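Report of the visiting student (M.T.), summer placement. My assignment was to run the structure pipeline on a short list of targets and document each run. The first record concerns Colanic acid biosynthesis glycosyltransferase WcaI.
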Amino acid sequence: MYSLNYAPELTGVGKYSGELVETLREHGGEAAVVTAQPYYPGWRIFDGFRNRYAIDRTRPGITVYRCPLYVPARPSGIKRLIHHASFVAATLPVMARLLLWRPDVIWMVEPSLMCAPIALVAGRLVGAKCWLHVQDYEVDAAFGLGLVKSAWLKRLALGAERWLMRRFDVVSSISTKMVERAKTKGVDSRKLVTLPNWVDIAEPRNDRLGNRYRKELGLAAGTKVCLYAGNMGQKQGLEVLADAARRLARRADICFVFCGEGSGRPALVEHCAGLRNVTFLPLQPAHTFAELLDCADVHLLPQRASVADLVMPSKLAGMLASGRPIVAIAEEGTDVCTVASQCGVAVAPGDRDAFAAAIEALIDEPELASRCGMRGRQYAIANLDRRHVMERFVNSLVQLCGS
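After the run finished, the structure tokens were exported:
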């Protein structure tokens, strides 16, 4: 596996890359992981790790090669490019060394697409199949969010992306729309695989009074919780959360809990200044995250219109599995809109009145909220159960290798 992010990162790409490698090990496979020192979503190297080369063999059958990289405290467009380039440069000697291991498959995760040339060359040199798994269309997202604005650079980057993607043996992504986008970039449909971000299906805990988070927050029995839990970055459009909390501050029975880390958190804290109905929590450990989701009465899923079909929020799977309704900002026709419309309310980007009104409607109509939440859970069981997704991954891997 060639992935910028990996366990022990708790959110996003790192979480899923780590769990995927564990699944491979459980099926008798061996894996070498080339990754960075963990830094996401707080954009700082984790405590207990040092920003230098390191090898970790604590898990049988898995060798993790960690490489140093530049981690900007406040990531911008140019700083992100340097961040990715520093990782690619640092991985060159490690990837060269691993050629002697002669892997059967090189599994590369986007981001970072900058790794693609190295992955493809390494694959050709040792006769390995090359599999590209797209978690984010980072090139499209960078220009869609305005992080990079040069027209000539956009043409160059999109052309390079198309050329590289077409040369992988398999290209997978996490939603139907994102797989369709790969096809529009010239990838042969026979190479495409849908591999959604999964969730461990556990029964939701409906004991509101016994929920540890409600106890820790000192919430009264009748208080309704509107929860956002996940990465706080630039793709999320988090300012709408502060706006909703401000509009509903008149409701003493509604509180907002915003949990996570990321480059967008300081701005969100600033937007919420003076709001007594808002509580911030740091990113929570994996073993209590399901209980955090269960404390919600309504889940909140903001997203910028400019990245609507370029990313699929990984936090959506946990929301659905919790059996609670969702209020999402999503453009019509996107995967998020399709799912959210069945399991809650989908609001058009920019319509802050409708976002706050949808939250209030679900709070005030508990039967509707319950029906939406159960439809979401049924969707998660049918489509996002970790066992089923991993079975699809293993079968595709066996088919690719021919054994």
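The longest helix spans residues 77-98. The mean pLDDT is 92. I thank the supervising group for their guidance throughout the placement.
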